[in-house]
Design a protein that fits this description.
This protein starts with a helix and ends in a 20-residue tail after the last helix. By secondary structure, the chain is mainly α. 12% of the residues are buried. It contains six helices and no strands.
Length: 153
């Protein structure tokens, strides 16, 4: 990472032209930036969107026991069972014409009284956890590919 001459001077002054003179900034080190970039960006997950799924996990804990889904294994048909469950809950969020609307996304599961979409999210999370436990997928898939450029083609 390189800085302009003005930025280098600003860092050398410790951000002296700041409105808060007691707040000094240090020039970031490339190695720290590189290390931070390699970390899993969990801060990007909108956690409020997962509150409903957490309620579904709480319901499942009461019904089946904490972490019961982790007893499943790919060799006992878990992939088909959990994929089927996810798809059933997702289909209950869909209108008959195949569209998803605000009304259809708000559909509640008859047994739990919780949103079907949250049950679907839990189904995918449980399937992913089972796949990790059984060695089908790594916990961290790595950075993946770079997204395509947004330039003109």
């Amino acid at each position: 990472m390189s800085f302009t001459k003005d930025e280098d001077e600003w860092f050398a002054r410790g951000g002296a032209d700041s409105d808060q003179p007691d707040v000094a900034m240090a020039k970031p080190r490339d190695s720290k930036i590189a290390a931070a970039a390699a970390k899993i960006p969990l801060e990007l997950i909108p956690l409020q969107a997962l509150r409903g799924a957490a309620r579904v996990f709480g319901y499942g804990k009461k019904k089946h026991g904490h972490g019961n889904f982790l007893l499943a294994h790919v060799d006992d048909g878990a992939i088909d069972r959990y994929t089927g469950g996810f798809l059933r809950h997702l289909s209950d969020c869909q209108q008959l014409d195949g569209k998803f609307t605000a009304e259809s996304l708000a559909h509640l599961d008859a047994e739990s009284g919780l949103p079907e979409i949250d049950h679907a999210i839990c189904g995918l999370v449980m399937l992913r956890a089972i796949a990790i436990k059984c060695g089908v997928l790594p916990a961290d898939p790595g950075l993946g590919n770079e997204p395509p450029s947004k330039g003109c083609s």
